[in-house]
Each structure stands twice: as structure tokens, then as C-alpha cells.
């Protein structure tokens, strides 16, 4: 009898989780040797021409996987075109970068390397620099048959980024019946679904799996108060399709509660302000302070943990 009850409880829990539009995060398979090499590269400033900028400069893992400015600084202090998104949980994104120009994490690595506003170098220069480090060359030969190369470097960093998954978020534990969730966060989740936020922000990463136009129910760019820049065209810059103008990859919200700036342009500096803006421009809704606070509490419950994060 007890065995039957336990089996029923496990099956019921699985059905409940599967029925929800948001799914708990889980680890993905990685090659630990490649992860170790990728971690070294991620923090290595030799990837930039000036030897001052690394992946970790813009994607600060101790906090939320991004930096604390609206636009990151690259070589010679040059500002990037868009806000750096979090690298945490990026393995679950349908494509990489705000405009989806990179098909996966491995392809994304090339973007900062050759961008004059980021690493401002070339693959031949970068490989020549790393080839001077004999221990590094040896380490790559042990893992990759072809040794040190642009493909191996990209693959190693991508493997490390695949491992950056924030597990055991309070919401995930609650969803699986393994932990409590505050009434305010539960109300926030209900509102998140009721108002339609869930239509774009769902799945494992609570987003990152589709593209959407910025400003469905209002002229976001006209109201923003600053001139439109090429980066504001979003997905259009990749596809050249007019329908994709002002369209961006929907960001995952797993680490949103820890961000310092929001949206591709970094124009909003508070979580509740970002929720309010999204409600008005994407849903055509005006939310009360209590509703904004509840949804913020729900987003806070999505924050999990990774060993690279500061406790």
C-alpha cells in the first residue's frame, strides 16, 4: 500500500511539472576536460588585443553573469552596441546574441574576438599569442587532436558556458514539491500567466526560445527619448526582413532579479520598472504597485545557484 502511494505521488508530481509552462533547470552533458580549458580561456585577458579584456569582463560570474553597466567596455574603453546579456543558462537559448546572429554558443565565441569594440583582434593573432604559452599548448594537445586552433578555443569556451546553469532555484524546488514558495511569489506567478507574460517567457530559461518585436502596444523607441541606433533594428540586421525590424530574442528571466540594467539598450535600471515597461508596451496593461511587487517576487524566486556565484 505504501509503495503504491509513493509511486502515485512521484507520478503526480511529474505530471504537475510537465503541465506547467515553466520547467525546472537541469544540468547538461559536458566534457570536463574541455570545461576546465574553457574556464581558463573565459578569464584570460590574452583573448583581447590589449590584454585587458576577457569574457569575464562583461560576463561577471560572481553576480549574475553580466556586468553592471548599460553597455560594456571593450578594448580602449570602446562601448558595445547593446547590453551584455547574462551567460548563465545561455545553453537553453534558441540562438545567441540579442539579434540571434550566432546559431549556438560555439559560434558566439567568434563575435567578440573579431569585434573592434570588444576584443578587437583576429584569430591568427590570438592563436599566435596563446602559442607562446607552452603549458597551454600542451593542455590543448591532450584534449583536442588538432591542438590549439580557433575551433578548439571556441569549443572549449562553449563547453564551459554549457556548464553555467543555475540550479535549485526556489521556484524550481516548489514546482517539484521540494520546497516552499512565498504567497507573494505564487501570486506573482499567477499574474505572470494571467496577463500573458508567459506567452514569450516560458520553458526552462523562462525565455530565450523565440523572437518578439519591441513595442507591440506602443512606440517604445519613439517614447524612449533617444535616437534610434543600428543596434535597435535587432533581428533585422541579420535577416534584412522588414518584419524583423525592432525584433529581438526574448531574454531568459532566470537571473533578471539580479540585473542592474534591462533590455537590449540598458535603458531601464529597476526590476519593477522593467516589468512595468514590458506590461505597457508588450501587453497593453497598466499594473498596480502590488502586482509589480508580486511579479518581482516571482522573478526573484527564479534565481538559482552556481559555484561561480558569490554566496
UniProtKB/TrEMBL annotation:
Superkingdom field: Bacteria
Cofactor-binding details, from the entry: Binds 2 heme groups.
Residues binding heme c 2: 197, 200-201, 278
Domain Cytochrome c intervals: 33-164, 183-303
InterPro entries: Cyt_c-like_dom, Cyt_c-like_dom_sf, Cytochrome_c_Peroxidase/MauG, Di-haem_cyt_c_peroxidsae, MauG/Cytc_peroxidase
Binding site for heme c 1: 55, 58-59
Coiled coil: none
Subcellular location(s) per record: Periplasm
Sorted UniProt keywords: Heme, Iron, Metal-binding, Oxidoreductase, Periplasm, Peroxidase, Signal
UniProt signal peptide: 1-18
GO MF annotation list: cytochrome-c peroxidase activity; electron transfer activity; heme binding; metal ion binding
Gene3D superfamilies named among the record's database cross-references: Cytochrome c-like domain (1.10.760.10)
Cofactor(s) annotated in UniProt: heme
Entry-linked SUPFAM superfamilies: Cytochrome c
Record's comment on post-translational modification: Binds 2 heme groups per subunit.
GO cellular component: a single term: periplasmic space
Protein name as catalogued: Cytochrome-c peroxidase
UniProt source species: Pseudoalteromonas rubra
Lineage: Bacteria, Pseudomonadati, Pseudomonadota, Gammaproteobacteria, Alteromonadales
